[in-house]
TrEMBL record:
A GO biological-process term: signal transduction
Domain TIR: 1-85
Designated name of the protein: TIR domain-containing protein
Domain of life the protein comes from: Eukaryota
Pfam families in alphabetical order: TIR_2 (PF13676)
InterPro entries according to UniProt: TIR_dom, Toll_tir_struct_dom_sf
Species classification: Eukaryota, Viridiplantae, Streptophyta, Embryophyta, Tracheophyta
Alphabetized Gene3D superfamilies for the sequence: Toll/interleukin-1 receptor homology (TIR) domain
Organism: Psophocarpus tetragonolobus
Classification via PROSITE patterns: TIR (PS50104)
Coiled coil (residue ranges): none
């Protein structure tokens, strides 16, 4: 992104173009309008989402009642969080370090989508493989 770019336009267009979304869900994730908007858009667009639960269990996820959010946004966010709770993901406990199989799962998902992926996704898969080696 460059100075002057419209944040929501860039986020929305990137999500619409992506094949896979990684949602890194932390204890304060459900307080962030931006995080919840991105997750909701990924789910609404039926993208494959790999949730990574960092220091939180899926059953602990709750959308807060923020009076600055519209009822429509709150409903979207709640539906997206509920879907994320029941999506097989990865867990990460920051006191114990990263799950070693996380990169394998992400790389495999990227490889499966390589034939129909954008150049950015393919570059990400190649980069992830290089880091792993």
């Amino acid at each position: 992104m460059k100075p002057g770019d419209k944040l929501f336009d860039k986020i929305n267009s990137a999500i619409l173009e992506c094949k896979i979304g990684l949602a890194v869900i932390s204890p304060r994730y459900c307080e962030s309008y931006f995080c919840l908007h991105e997750l909701a858009l990924l789910m609404e667009c039926k993208k494959k989402v790999i949730p990574i639960f960092v220091d939180i269990k899926p059953s602990q996820l709750r959308v807060i009642n923020n009076k600055n959010w519209t009822l429509e946004d709150h409903t979207r966010f709640k539906l997206a969080i509920e879907e994320a709770k029941y999506t097989v993901g990865l867990t990460f406990n920051s006191s114990q370090g990263m799950v070693t199989s996380a990169s394998d799962i992400i790389i495999e998902s990227l490889k499966k989508n390589r034939s129909s992926c954008s150049i950015h996704t393919c570059q990400l898969a190649k980069f992830a493989e290089e880091i792993k080696d």
